[in-house]
Amino acid sequence: MTALDRAGDVLGRLRALPTAAISDALDRVGLAGALHGLGPLSNDFRAVGPAFTVRYAPADDERGSVGDFLDDVPQGAVIVIDNDGRTDVTVWGGIMTEVAAARRIAGTVINGVCRDVSASLEQSYPIFSRGRFMRTGKDRVRLVAVGEPLRVSGVTIKPGDLVCADADGAVVVPTADAIRVAELAAHIERVEAEIVAAARAGSTLRAARERFGYHQLQSRQS
Ligand SMILES: O=C([O-])CC(=O)C(=O)O
Ligand SMILES: [Mg+2]
Hints:
This protein has six helices and ten strands, in the order H-H-E-E-E-H-E-H-E-E-E-E-E-E-H-H. By secondary structure, it is an alpha/beta fold. The chain has two domains: about 1-30 and about 175-220, no CATH class; about 35-175, Glucose Oxidase, domain 1, CATH 3.50.30.40. The strands form two sheets. Strands 1, 2, 3, 4, 5, 6, 9 and 10 form an eight-stranded mixed beta sheet that branches. The radius of gyration is 19 Å and the shape is elongated. The protein starts with a helix and ends in a 10-residue tail after the last helix. The mean pLDDT is about 95. The structure holds oxaloacetate ion (OAA) and magnesium ion (MG). Oxaloacetate ion binds near residues 92, 96 and 136. It holds the Pfam family RraA-like. Belongs to the class II aldolase/RraA-like family. Its cofactor is a divalent metal cation. It catalyses: oxaloacetate + H(+) = pyruvate + CO2; 4-hydroxy-4-methyl-2-oxoglutarate = 2 pyruvate.
């Protein structure tokens, strides 16, 4: 099996899992991956794929713009944009949504805000952000890095790390740990389903949780 096959395989596994279980699995192995403060524009949105990283900084006196990097993003990638958490100017809008959707880019995660939200909803193009706002970043931000590691919400995101995002938010899984994290997350999902089944069958929640080890599911493995 080639590295590409393995990556495809683990992406398939992560795609089947909710971010809640992936986050618990990251807790279990002691990795920080949850991007606090970023949420989906629609609860139906879900995106899984390797990170394509982009960073903006204030334009200051230079003439800046947003989005020209889009032509270089491969199909299936999740674009991760770091605008340092700014919520007063956008780094994503409707033209970018239309192009990204047509090129089958998997989604966009923004440490900042976006506009033209209706285009994202109409195209079912998944965007996760700190919110929405209409004032453009054009002339206000400039692109400073593409394909370099980012630091968002205390999490380091390297290009190619696997981004998983759904109604609960976005988490990042380092490629080297992805198979282990996916296996643990699948285990957590199975155990939680057993707890629900036991409770539905008449067990108390306390007894069901005790029986299946609920309280330790996410605890750091020694
Ligand atoms: O200024 C922006 O955020 C970009 C924009 O509106 C678009 O791509 O349609
Ligand atoms: Mg626009």
